[in-house]
Design brief:
heterodimer, A: mainly alpha, Rna Polymerase Sigma Factor, Chain: A, 2 domains, B: 87 residues, Arc Repressor Mutant, subunit A
Chain lengths: 187, 87
């Protein structure tokens, strides 16, 4: 590698290290694997850097390498925990349940960060990665579509279902913890 | 003179709500949703609830960036040229 390659990689790619790590952590589910995955992604990116078109989108480029590395080398190791059933999700039912008691959703603020990340980790892979890229990294739909290699319409529907499933999960947890009174079941 | 946005129904607004909140709708469609929300308390309630949920996710799920030690390791590897890591 030339000195120039290294310098341009440091200037354009390294600033995205935190984003790569955050996404790696939610894909892999534990810190040790996330560190390995991040390091491997950055080194692969560095070696492939001469083929990167400068000024395009280094973040999306690195996250694509990250995702492929995860799928090819890490996914099988991901510990099997409980998984949220995405197929059972109905539209906006949490709001329907809380709109009288807590229309602003203030029960969310009672949840701690670990409650949230634990629930995110229970989403199936393709829903988890879409939600993480959107709601943790703030990427636009088109960029998520490019990274996850699906049409924008698929990103929309995955994001919708992931958010709704996660919301239902967090709501159920908040009810269990007594943060919010359970709505009387309708007969 | 600016045209009033075309009326859209609750169903359409609900269908496009996340795109609206994520800033993914084009100007015309976003104006239609906004126009509806000004007139429909039910959809406005849902929209406010979902907006605060998304803001909550962004704030609470982000965690920290890469540990300083990992940054150092990666930088060192780059500085060394890291041909040793090539299989």
């Amino acid at each position: 590698m030339t000195e120039n390659t290294r310098r341009s990689f440091e200037a354009e790619a390294l600033p995205h290290l935190d984003a790569v790590y955050r996404v790696a952590l939610r894909l892999a589910g534990d810190e040790t694997q996330a560190e390995d995955l991040t390091q491997e992604t950055m080194l692969k990116g560095y070696r492939a850097w001469p083929g990167y078109r400068q000024g395009t989108n280094a973040r999306a480029w690195l996250l694509t390498i990250l995702r492929n590395t995860f799928i090819n080398e890490y996914r099988r190791d991901r510990r099997a925990g409980y998984t949220i059933d995405i197929s059972a999700i109905e539209e906006f039912t949490v709001f329907r349940d809380v709109q009288d008691a807590d229309p602003e959703g203030s029960f969310f603020s009672q949840l701690v960060d670990d409650d949230v990340t634990r629930a995110i980790d229970a989403l199936p892979d393709e829903f988890r990665e879409t939600l993480v890229l959107s709601d943790i990294e703030g990427l636009p739909y088109a960029e998520i579509a490019r990274i996850t290699d699906v049409p924008v319409g698929t990103v929309k529907s995955r994001l919708f279902r992931a958010r709704q499933a996660l919301q239902r999960e967090l709501y159920t947890y908040a009810v269990d913890m007594g943060y919010i009174a359970k709505r009387e079941a309708r007969s | 003179m600016i045209d009033e946005p075309r009326d859209v129904d609750c169903h359409t607004v609900i269908e496009r709500l996340y795109e609206f909140l994520d800033g993914e709708l084009d100007d015309d469609r976003a104006a239609q949703v906004r126009h509806h929300l000004e007139r429909c308390a039910k959809c406005l309630g849902l929209s406010n609830f979902e907006a605060s949920y998304i803001a909550f996710l962004e704030a609470r799920a982000r965690g920290q960036g890469a540990p300083p030690d990992l940054k150092r390791r990666i930088l060192n590897q780059l500085l060394l040229g890291d041909d040793s890591a090539n299989e």
